[in-house]
Write a structure and sequence with these properties.
By secondary structure, this protein is an alpha/beta fold. It contains 14 helices and 22 strands. Helices cover 33% and strands 25% of the residues.
């Protein structure tokens, strides 16, 4: 049995952060992963999906430029996009990522790890022991719902959609969350006829309903068909494609079926029962230091907090500090930022209005339409849809949540993120000098509304 200072199981963004900091501090680190080092994000998630969004946005901007500045024609070419995706993913090869770890002095083992005892894991019959402990950072996998017939027909998850060498003539997307709408828009802009099926009444059901409504308008304007408020009841082969029966008695069909109904964590193969953790659970419970037990930490999707790369890295920093016995601030999730990279982008932070009311907060709401701002009017095409919504705690005079939708909304979110996290008084936000004419200034009316409501 070989011995190390620290064992990190799963080298996605969170696991990599822990391993990096521990190795740079001089610890003997063993990293284990049975998938590609780097996790979902650089190969099938954040990075290639945003490459697809960038390509689709370029096509949309070219079309807008024709109306604004000249004449011409742009023909979509999926093979060019597919080539760019292969480039940024390294053609789904993690040699560079593995070398990054090895060059820091870490030991890397490819395989599936199972916890066998406190501070011990087994990989393919070989046992390893850690002096300080084990970090679990195994992420999640696409969740495929138990819809009758689905398992019997060929279907895509986000992985196959990212890897596709060609785009289909038509596609049905099950799920109107962030992954579903991003991929739907990208494929639609390259000529695929897309239908989104979402069981909830609004797209992006975890966000403010105003954002889902505005995004629905934007996607419909591009020709994407939307079936919200209905679920899939059965899936069957339909010639070379698929037929999806819906809960209202209707059906939709397409050459391809993309299942984008979320992700799940599978704790069973990890052997967490050896550490007193329920293997049938949906996550590993952790405290504010990311501790899951004596000599055991967990970071990333597996904690069930929020399945975002930036959250995994944040947790990785805290876990590393705890392992290295360095001073650190406990985990705080009051202001977790979220961005959906559609066009227009949807970005949010903190509590929604509904969540705030459920917590008994005395809520005040401010709304500002993107198109009604000076910059929205100047921008024209591409800024027709979107709204900024701020959620204030009237009793404390601070924002507890905010969302915004429009061009580069993810960048605009910065000031709202800071306001929620630092609990900047609404009066202070009201008195800022917002530069004109910017999209940033477009949030000012929403701030003014909650300020006036709070002073009334």
């Amino acid at each position: 049995m070989s011995e190390h200072d620290l064992i990190v199981v799963g080298l996605g963004p969170g696991g990599e952060e822990v391993a990096k900091q521990a190795a740079e501090a001089g610890l003997n680190v063993l990293g284990i992963d049975h998938r590609l080092v780097g996790g979902e994000c650089p190969y099938w998630g954040c990075v290639p999906s945003k490459v697809m969004a960038r390509a689709g946005n370029s096509l949309a901007e070219a079309a807008r430029a024709i109306g604004l500045a000249g004449d011409g024609e742009m023909t979509p070419a999926w093979p060019k996009l597919a080539g760019r995706v292969r480039e940024v993913t390294g053609d789904w090869d993690d040699a560079v990522a593995v070398r990054r770890h090895v060059d820091r002095g870490e030991t890397f083992v490819r395989g599936t790890a199972t916890l066998t005892a406190p501070r011990e894991v087994e990989v393919d019959g070989e046992r390893y022991r850690s002096r300080r402990g084990v970090v679990i950072a195994t992420g999640g996998v696409p969740a495929v719902p138990p819809i009758p017939g689905l398992a019997d027909v060929e279907h895509w998850t986000s992985r196959e959609a990212i890897e596709a060498a060609n785009n289909p003539h038509s596609m049905v997307v099950l799920g109107g969350g962030a992954v579903g709408v991003e991929l739907a828009q990208a494929y639609g802009r390259f000529g695929t006829e897309v239908t989104i099926v979402e069981r909830d009444p609004h797209l992006l059901s975890l966000e403010e309903p105003e954002q889902g409504e505005e995004l629905a308008k934007a996607l419909a304007a591009e020709g994407i068909a939307l079936r919200t408020g209905v679920g899939a009841t059965e899936v069957a082969a339909d010639g070379p494609g698929v037929l999806v029966s819906l809960s209202d008695g209707s059906s939709v069909s397409g050459e391809r079926l993309l299942v984008a109904t979320g992700r799940r964590v599978d704790l069973g193969p990890l052997g967490v029962a050896a550490m007193g953790i329920d293997p049938s659970g949906h996550a590993i419970p952790v405290d504010e230091r990311l501790r899951a037990g004596d000599g055991l930490w967990a970071v990333g999707d597996v904690t069930g907090v929020a399945a975002f790369t930036h959250v995994a890295v944040y947790q990785g920093r805290i876990a590393a500090a705890d392992i290295l016995q360095r001073p650190h601030t406990p985990a705080d999730y009051r202001a977790v930022p979220r961005v959906t990279f559609t066009d227009p982008e949807v970005a949010s932070v903190g509590l929604s209005e509904r969540d705030a009311r459920e917590r008994g907060i005395d809520v005040r709401i401010g709304l500002a339409r993107t198109a009604e701002s000076s910059r929205g009017y100047i921008h024209g095409p591409g800024a027709e849809f979107g709204v900024t919504k701020v959620v204030a705690d009237a009793a404390r005079g601070v924002l507890v949540g905010a969302s915004t939708m429009g061009p580069a909304a993810g960048e605009l979110l910065g000031i709202l993120l800071l306001a929620v996290q630092a609990q900047i008084p609404v009066s202070g936000l009201r008195d800022l000098i917002y530069p004109y004419p910017t999209f940033l200034r477009g949030i000012e009316p929403a701030i003014q509304q909650v300020s006036e409501a709070g002073s009334g």
